Write a sequence for this structure.
């Protein structure tokens, strides 16, 4: 079990194991959460509403702990374990209730086919190796009906694998842009060029 799973087990059996649960100061001791401390009050003051995406449900659990410690932040959560018949209700609640400040979503479950234009800030807590999954998540705000400027924030920890992942993702996006622009300008050249590369 991970440290956080052990922490949840201690909370579940609080009467016997409560003293072994993690102190809240340890949960808050994260560079990304310290960045949350800077950004979220500013967004709230400006009347912005926030979508926070993570690839991992356990990370969403930890972010929930952070939000509970902060107490004054209302939020909803949608991930792959959320029953399908409940998802549209959560989306409607967020869109209709301006008092709900944050919507926590998993990148895969919350990144496709839903409209959340009531939010105008997207925070990608942990980036995906496939940049198109993150772009799909960003597009939850970038849809018809959006009236505010949309802010996209990717949180990357310095000197970690995330920096290499981000560079790799940018190269993929650049390659896709170059390939599609080449195809649009001269489709015949594009096809024959790649055919030659494959054959040779």
């Amino acid at each position: 079990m991970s440290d956080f799973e052990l922490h949840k087990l201690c909370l579940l059996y609080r009467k016997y194991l409560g003293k072994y649960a993690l102190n809240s100061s340890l949960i808050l001791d994260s560079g990304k959460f310290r960045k949350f401390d800077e950004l979220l009050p500013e967004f709230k003051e400006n009347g912005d509403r926030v979508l926070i995406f993570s690839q991992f449900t356990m990370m969403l659990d930890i972010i929930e702990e952070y939000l509970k410690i902060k107490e004054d932040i209302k939020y909803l959560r949608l991930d792959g374990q959320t029953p399908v018949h409940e998802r549209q209700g959560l989306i409607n609640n967020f869109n209709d209730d301006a008092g709900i400040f944050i919507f926590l979503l998993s990148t895969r479950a919350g990144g496709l086919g839903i409209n959340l234009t009531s939010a105008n800030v997207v925070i990608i807590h942990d980036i995906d190796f496939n940049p198109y999954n993150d772009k799909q998540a960003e597009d939850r705000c970038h849809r018809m009906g959006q009236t505010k400027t949309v802010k996209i924030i990717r949180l990357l920890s310095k000197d970690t694998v995330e920096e290499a992942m981000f560079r790799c993702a940018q190269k993929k996006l650049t390659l896709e842009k170059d390939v599609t622009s080449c195809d649009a300008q001269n489709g015949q050249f594009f096809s024959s060029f790649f055919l030659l590369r494959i054959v040779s």
In short: The beta strands are 50-54, 75-78, 102-106, 121-124, 151-154.
